[in-house]
Amino acid sequence: MGLVQKIFGTHSQHELKRIYPIADKVESYREEYGKLSDEQLKGKTKEFKERLSKGETLNDLLPEAYATVREAAKRVLGMEHYRVQIIGGIILHQGRIAEMRTGEGKTLVCTLPAYLNALEEKGVLVVTVNDYLAKRDAEWMGQVHNFLGLSVGIVLHDMKDDERRAAYASDITYVTNNELGFDYLRDNMAIYKEQLVLRDLHYCIIDEVDSVLIDEARTPLIISGQSGKSTKLYELCDVLARQLVKGTYHGERTKMQVMMQEEIEEDGDFIVNEKDKVVNLTEQGVHKVEQFFHIDNYADIENLEIQHNVTLALRAHYLMFRDKDYVVKDDEVLIVDEFTGRIMPGRRYSDGLHQAIEAKEHVKVKRESKTLATITFQNFFNKFDKKAGMTGTALTEEKEFRGIYNMDVVEVPTNKPIARIDHNDAVFKTMKGKFNAVVEEVVAAHEKGQPVLVGTITIDTSELLSEMLRKRGIPHNVLNAKYHELEAQIVADAGKHGAVTIATNMAGRGTDIKLDEEARAAGGLKIIGTERHESRRIDNQLRGRAGRQGDPGESRFYISLEDNLMRLFAQETLMNTFNRLGVGENDQIEHKLLSNAIETAQKKIETNNYGIRLHLLEYDQVMNEQREIMYAERKRVLNGESMRNSIMKMITDFVEGVVNRSVSEDKSADEWNYDEINELLLPTIPIAPVAYDENIKNKNELIHALKEKAVKFYEDKEALFPEPETIREIERVVLLKVIDRKWMDHIDDMDQLKQGIGLQAYGQKDPVVQYKMMGYDMFDEMTRAITEDTVRLLMHIQVEEKVEREQVAKVTGTNKDEGPSVKGPVRRTDKKIYPNDLCPCGSGKKYKNCCGRQA
Ligand SMILES: Nc1ncnc2c1ncn2[C@@H]1O[C@H](COP(=O)(O)OP(=O)(O)OP(=O)(O)O)[C@@H](O)[C@H]1O
Predict the structure, then answer these.
(1) 526 touches ligand 1 (CB under 6 Å)
(2) Which of 450, 701, 748, 760 is most buried, judged by most C-beta within 10 A?
(3) Which ranges constitute the DSSP H helices of 120-197?
(4) Which residues pair with 428 in a beta bridge?
């Protein structure tokens, strides 16, 4: 805490002062409500709804409503909300983020604002991070809501539309962020109103809000469909990638090095920069690729596809790891979520990376997919009228919550003091030394009867440790994405006397491990982290599995200088110190300063990742504005509104556009190019050809006359349909079809634009500005094309034609773009300049002898 905060108090302290009186009020009803019969307590729901309809507000009702839920929870679950939980509940109702430490009972907190806001009958969504929690929480807390007469729904991954619709129609719905996001996208691809599953986005409470709005925000949700491309190139590039030799990475070249034309000795065919997750070919590598594909110039624009695929194959081989980033199961490559350790069923890496991995793993390479709909969590959750969040770890990202989501974070005090002891990190020189020590620590705890939870980042490590413990004869359970069927049982057993559980990040959030008496007496749960995660929040979540509700417990992270994080971000300085001190393989070094150094490395990465998210958001903002317009238009169609006015406007707009393009004001009417007018106009609006007419002297008169003719033509067409509703529906069908087709192409084009625009950065232009400008132009072009197509189709419609709504694109899967180079849309390999290339400044000199300009 800084000095200013010490003197003036923190933001949270200020805010809590205003919340305490409301909490007092809730508590003041305790005795009175305790005396109510079950029936009287249940009757409160009806009473509150009536009072709402008579003009009272949710804020007016809050104290009584919260007291009602509290009493109901006491009767139904045997848990009565603590004062701090009431405070948390108030913060959530106010649309903010409640930071409540791990194990403080956020699941129960949620019942308060969920109930209160559900009284408005517009639906409340409780958003969790995985199916397990959605199901657990809905079943557990659902009992309270049911008792009070509210309905509760759950949406799970394998549910059909009907089940989803029913679940969303409930008063309170438990759903994961992914299911919810995809349902939103799918709803916006529906062609009949009856197909929609979601209601309007009213109020949501996001559990583990940092996971959803921060960690997952880096990766947009994508729904994709098939495109007809062949998969051969992926297989060829995989063969090639296996032949190429990896060279040594010397670090990014600084501007100064480039200026000084300093040459770095390059070896191998390609260089892997693990830190930035980029692969670059060397000059030698480029030659090999050219030979392999029998092409003259790799850098040539016509070889863009080869360039892209070679990079993908190398990334698949050198940056994507089996059993860490993905698993291979039933002849399929399945993504493992880096933050939660869970398999993400049905998801695919975008932009061809998934195919490249399929080729690498020799499973069937699926067809290239085309993006049909996409949104980021930022833009999705900002659509809610009100949103709230809770987590044990939000404060480190407060700035981001405020800036991007307009939510502040209020830190709620714990119910009981935290008794968990968080030890300093134990640091080792090598991984071997580290794992040996971990095993010793587990054995010691096990013998003492203290339950242990060993957290690993990868599936591989969990299996390695399992093997080491098996050799030592220590019985244990393993929880990872490969074996998750027994999750609930493993978690239930993990707090028993002497239990040993190894788990990936899967058990890192939300998992509630209950201790038995013997375990408590033996010191409570011991958490052993086997590696630091990139983000401090993930580590803190793991620690938070112990010491819940004032329980005893301890935690310690075991780290080696060979760990990824250390290797990439902190190794050099630490290695020097270790060598100076003469540290051996099995020596354990422990000091606050070391733990601090590691945190500094994590902070660096966190800042970097924040940059990535902001960047992504800047790009997505452009699409977001456009998406709003398109989705609003679709909604009107689905709602069955008459689109006649819009169609009429399209017709007249089209006419005006044609005249504006072909007629120049400088020329008199007899000099106008009537052929051109007819060429542009008649294929779309089949009226009689336009010719010189002495009554029409200027452009406006021509526009006016043609508009009249076009409208007349359309009115005649309308008159052919005895039932006006028939043509109204035809208008909707045509519009929907054209909008969808053009919009999907547009999304794909914008994707391409984003990929390519990064190159502009070399030309001293801000890529985001360029993207915006070109994006707006493309949107204009798309609206023009929609107008033209719609008008043409309607003007040519035949009475006997059967016109039905149909889905424009075949959806193949819901993807989450998890490609590692989300850093920016730059495909660096495409643009690398080699010493013997001509300098891009145009001097004609070789690059190595010239000015060092980048493009
Ligand atoms: N008011 C209460 N009375 C009794 N027990 C409670 C109360 N509130 C919570 N608990 C218990 O505390 C434990 C932790 O609850 P829960 O798992 O909801 O915590 P959490 O805040 O969601 O933790 P995490 O941050 O790890 O997700 C649970 O076992 C729950 O039964």
Answers:
(1) no
(2) 450
(3) 131-147, 161-168, 177-187
(4) 560
Considering Cα of 70, then 73, then 74, then 75, what sign does the dihedral take? positive
Q: How many Å lie between the centroid of ligand 1 and the Cα of residue 450?
A: 21
The protein residue with its alpha carbon nearest to ligand 1, atom 31, reads: 105
Place of tokens 């997919």: 369
Q: Ligand 1 in contact with 77 (CB < 6 A)?
A: no
N-to-C CA span, the chain: 47
> Which runs of E-coded beta strand occur in 157-247?
172-176, 203-207, 221-226
Q: What's the pLDDT score for residue 492?
A: 81
Tokens of 748: 């794909």
DSSP class of residue 820 equals: T
CA–CA distance, 377 with 206 (Å, rounded to integer)? 12
pLDDT at 241 over 70: yes
Q: 239-254 b/e with 16+ CB inside 10 Å = b?
A: ebbeebebbeeeeeee
Residue nearest (by alpha carbon) to ligand 1 atom 4: 79
Structure tokens at 10: 């923190």
What is the 494 CA–ligand 1 centroid distance (Å)? 16
Q: Is 54 annotated as a binding residue?
A: no
What is the pLDDT averaged over residues 155-173?
A: 95
Q: Are 825 and 767 in contact (CB under 8 A)?
A: yes
Determine the distance separating the centroid of ligand 1 and the alpha carbon of 101, expressed in angstroms: 10
Residue-wise pLDDT for 595-648, tens only, equals 888 888 888 888 888 887 887 788 888 889 999 999 999 999 999 999 999 999
pLDDT at site 263: 62
pTM: 0.81
106 is in an annotated binding site: yes
* Residue of 144, 549, 551 best suited for mutating to test ligand 1, as the one with most atoms within 8 Å of CB: 549
Q: Is the pLDDT of residue 235 over 60?
A: yes
Signed CA dihedral, 61, 66, 71, 76: sign only:
positive
Residue nearest to atom 28 of ligand 1 (CA): 105
Is 296 annotated in a binding site? The answer is no
- pLDDT of residue 78 exceeding 60: yes
Digit-coded pLDDT (tens) for 428-482:
988 999 999 999 999 999 999 999 999 988 888 889 999 999 999 999 999 887 7
552-596 confidence digits (pLDDT tens): 999 999 998 888 887 777 667 777 777 787 888 888 888 787 788
Determine the pLDDT at residue 526.
96
Question: Cβ distance 333 to 326 under 8 Å?
Answer: yes
| Structure-block tokens of residue 604 | 């660096």
For a mutational test of ligand 1's pocket, the pick from 79, 87, 137, i.e. the residue with the most ligand atoms closer than 8 A to its C-beta, is 79
From the list 211, 199, 212, 41, the residue with the least C-alpha distance to 124 is 199
Percent of the chain with pLDDT over 90: 48
Q: Does the beta carbon of 81 sit less than 6 angstroms from any atom of ligand 1?
A: yes
Q: Which of 415-429, 497-511, 780-794 has the lowest mean pLDDT?
A: 497-511
- Separation in Å, CA 668 to CA 664, 671, 699, 700, 704: 9, 5, 9, 13, 17
Torsion of CA 664, 669, 673, 678, to 10 degrees: 110
Number of neighbours of residue 649 by Cβ within 10 angstroms: 12
- Give the C-alpha separation, 287 to 836, whole Å: 13
